[in-house]
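Issue 218. Parser rejects a valid record. Input:
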Amino acid sequence: MSYIYPYKSGSQSARALKAYMNIKAIKREGSKFKGSEKKVVINWGNSQLPEEVMKCNVINNPENVSICSNKKAFFEHIQQWNADDKDGRFACRIPMSTNDRRVAENWIARGHEVVCRTRLEAHSGEGIVLASTPEDLVDAPLYTMYVKKKQEYRVHIIDSSVVMVQRKARQFGVPNEDVNWKIRNHAGGFIFAHNEDHIPPDDVIDQASNCMKAVGLDFGAMDVIYNESQGKAYVLEVNTAPGLAGETVNVYCNHLSDLVYRKSVGQEDAKIQIENEYEMAMFGRAAQRLNNRNFYDIP
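Output the parser choked on:
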């Protein structure tokens, strides 16, 4: 039996997955849910889970989600990961960061802009103050050095496979004066482009893949920028409950169904030979896809 536990009761993305995957949602309050090892639960963005849910086979460990939910914790974790990766094979590139305002002031003195992160668990650019002068700086628990970008992407990875890459594109109809090229969110006049021929640079995929290894998630959506003059990509954050709509719902439904199936039968191989007709009937297309499709696996 499969379930989803949303980070909030009103999560539209969790509702969409529940409907399309034909699974049950566990109530956040007043739930009578009883956990067991035979049940698989998709953790949709929670840093903590109820005791009964933790008895199940959980997709996305809450401890790993916690790392990604807090911007400061995420940057510190990646810094430690990179320090431990002696040969740099799986290093994840991120902007420079500090919690010391004096260091941020020094960056500005050297000609850099600073991103003041006044909220550590925000999303969609909430709580960001961009400072180009010492007077612009505000008190914040985290400062990051602003990195210029040609493009910004969201790389979706499920079970070590890159399943979708979206590019942030300017939304038609937004006046020039309302477009914010430095903070590319919906309020700044940007949306995620779909079904375009644009191919992201290899380093965008490489950095997202290394980030996924570092945080240890089963699925996640990495926000990655690309600096064309440097030829380098930088990971900004990881979304453990990304907004889903249209095509992304279908992608997550298909790939999470595959992952739930493998968790259910205790099989982690990319290809599974289905021998039990009852299991084939129970899981249907998920089992068939696993036997027939090719994976883009992270090396």
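Fixed in the parser; the record now loads. The longest helix spans residues 247-265.
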